[in-house]
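Re: that backbone. Tokens:
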């Protein structure tokens, strides 16, 4: 047996053992059915991007999606233009007033967040919506525009089969505690640090 043959045989044996381990692990897991609460947070880029990727995945299965955008305001974004092509499957609501440093008006920001949360609650309890993306909700919570206890209670009381994804940096510990999945995006390198502004099709 050549060295290459031995390497191939060793690989096959290792993958066979890995397959057995995987099958044993999967046998311990519950069946699908319960809706998940997912949180994308951290200082790195990609939180909303990942959320919108999940929207695309849900649409691929013919699921109905609700999207509420906090904070970002009336920016024309690629995701907004794209997902509004599917009015029968996507309900897309832009509720923010813009970045906090642009509005410079806390009362206005609070009012916008409260309006967005009211719309979120409506979608949360809409039986026609399978997946709900609450984009940048974490920012509204970070600045205490909304009561975290009320938000947590509503998310915990959501319909059993409802999937919800919350994005934005500085997620509150109370939200992390009830989430089924938490992903923290880590900033390693960013073009903005090199003097490059946000790019169409990449950042918005």
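Recovered sequence:
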């Amino acid at each position: 047996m050549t060295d290459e043959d031995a390497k191939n045989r060793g690989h096959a044996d290792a993958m066979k053992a890995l397959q057995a381990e995987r099958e044993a692990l999967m046998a311990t897991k519950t069946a699908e059915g319960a809706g998940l609460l997912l949180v994308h947070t951290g200082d790195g880029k990609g939180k909303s991007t990942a959320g919108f990727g999940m929207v695309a995945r849900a649409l691929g299965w013919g699921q109905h999606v609700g999207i509420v955008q906090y904070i970002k305001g009336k920016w024309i974004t690629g995701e907004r233009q794209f997902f509004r092509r599917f009015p029968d499957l996507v309900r897309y609501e832009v509720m923010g007033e813009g970045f906090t440093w642009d509005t410079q008006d806390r009362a206005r920001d609070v009012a916008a967040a409260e309006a967005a949360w009211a719309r979120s609650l409506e979608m949360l309890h809409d039986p026609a919506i399978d997946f709900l993306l609450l984009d940048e909700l974490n920012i509204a919570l970070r600045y205490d525009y909304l009561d975290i206890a009320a938000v947590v209670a509503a998310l915990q009381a959501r319909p059993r089969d409802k999937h919800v994804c919350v994005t934005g940096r500085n997620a509150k510990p109370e939200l992390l505690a009830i989430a089924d999945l938490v992903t923290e995006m880590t900033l390693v390198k960013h073009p903005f640090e090199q003097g490059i502004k946000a790019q169409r099709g990449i950042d918005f």
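The mean pLDDT is 90. The beta strands are 37-41, 65-69, 90-94, 131-135, 163-167, 181-184.
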